[in-house]
Amino acid sequence: MESTRLINNINVACDWVVKLLYLNLLWILFTMAGLIIAGIFPATAAMYTVIKGYQASENVSAFKLFKKVYKEEFSRANQLGIVLVIIPVIFYTDWLFTSYLSGTMEMVAKGILLGSACLYGITLLYVFPVYLLNRNVFTSIKMAFLIGITYPLNTFMMLISIASLLFLFVFLPMAGYLFLSSGLACIVTFFSLRVFQKVEVQAGDKQKQRKSEWVMNS
After folding, report:
1. What's the angle, vertex CA 148, arms to CA 143 and CA 150, rounded to 5?
2. pLDDT per residue over 170-203, tens digit each?
3. What phi and psi, each to the nearest 5 degrees, are found at residue 191?
4. What is the CA radius of gyration of the chain?
């Protein structure tokens, strides 16, 4: 019984390794197809879509779904990418501006920028999973920010998992080349789906509470 369970676990692990390896390859190829700059964001959106299907145990044809989402989201995903790139450019420009300040003003300004950069990093973790739910650039950024700060424990666990994976890739650089993008997306999707489930449950509970209050008051 235990040997059968072990074999099943090994089969599942091997299946995931193959899927992530193939998905990482697709991400690289489609990113290059868009000349990197125009391809990286739609390829990332497509990769998250496929991984979401994998984690939901759906029967996913990786290449067909990847290609379909890549084409459909090419324009919107690049719009999202432009915004995501502009924000750190603004941070960097403001950071250079702080060099003209001195004393307490410089420390306060740099502190605010560092805090804002951390919040931006948290938003970046959730932005693609959220984007796949509504396909709206600014709504996705806003919701990703709110989710990131509303569920700090989930965000912290996600960051620890990402750091652990990157630490592993430092010692196994070849694994990093083969699984970096898909491995990170797999972690982010896993923790994002947990949060989305909590949000749905809480929204359902609030709706039931409002209905009961309405019945009691009517």
Report:
1. 90
2. 999 999 899 999 999 999 999 999 999 988 888 7
3. -75, -30
4. 21
- Please state, in angstroms and rounded to a whole number, the distance separating the CA atoms of residues 183 and 123: 19
Residue pLDDT, tens place only, 114-171: 999 999 999 999 999 999 998 899 999 999 999 999 999 999 999 999 999 999 999 9
CA distance linking residue 54 with residue 48, whole number of Å: 10
- Does residue 53 contact residue 60 with C-beta atoms inside 8 Å? yes
Measured at the alpha carbon of residue 128, what is the angle toward residues 45 and 126, in degrees to the nearest 5?
160
Handedness of CA 89, 71, 127, 143 (dihedral sign): positive
**DSSP alpha helices (H): ranges in the chain?**
2-33, 40-55, 62-72, 74-97, 103-134, 137-150, 152-171, 173-217
Q: By C-alpha distance, which of 7, 51, 36 is closest to 179?
A: 51
CA distance 176 to 215: 57
Nearest partner of 195 among 131, 132, 129, 139, judged by Cα = 129
Chain centroid offset of residue 218 CA = 44
Contact yes or no for 51/189 (Cβ under 8 A): yes
SS3 label, residue 135: coil
Q: How confident is the model at residue 90 (pLDDT cuts 50, 70, 90)?
A: very high
- The amino acid at 186: C
